[in-house]
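Entry:
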Amino acid sequence: MLILSEEFKNLLISEEQISENEMKLSTRLSEDLGIDGIDAHYLMESYADTFSIDTGDFDFHRYFNDETDALLFIPMILFALSRFLIWQLLLGQPVQKQTTVPVTLAMLQQAIDDGVWNCARIESLAGTQVYPPPPKKSWWFSRIRNKT
């Protein structure tokens, strides 16, 4: 059974001021603790250095969002508007959101135990134990077609 090590708990308390009550195996860094962007970058650097973890196939952009630069704000709004117009109005499909894979404390502890970040192993453990895959929703067109 996977439990959080005291060393890992101490790192979370010292780096991010996380209380003991918030430390559960299913706690997600971005969604539950609000650690994203540059904060996540510094935490992951400190985490890898403290526990001598080989980063393996870890890709920051797969798990965390970047902080947006102020100069990119207007182009981002124009891009989001164009995506909405193309997907929603012309194609009749919901806009596809760019999502990241949630990082849990269980995933981080597993990487400490393994000594390397292996996406396939860590994400499969999280997917089966912590985050089951979401149910598939049918699109409006297929719902209309199935009624007839």
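The chain has a mean pLDDT of 76.
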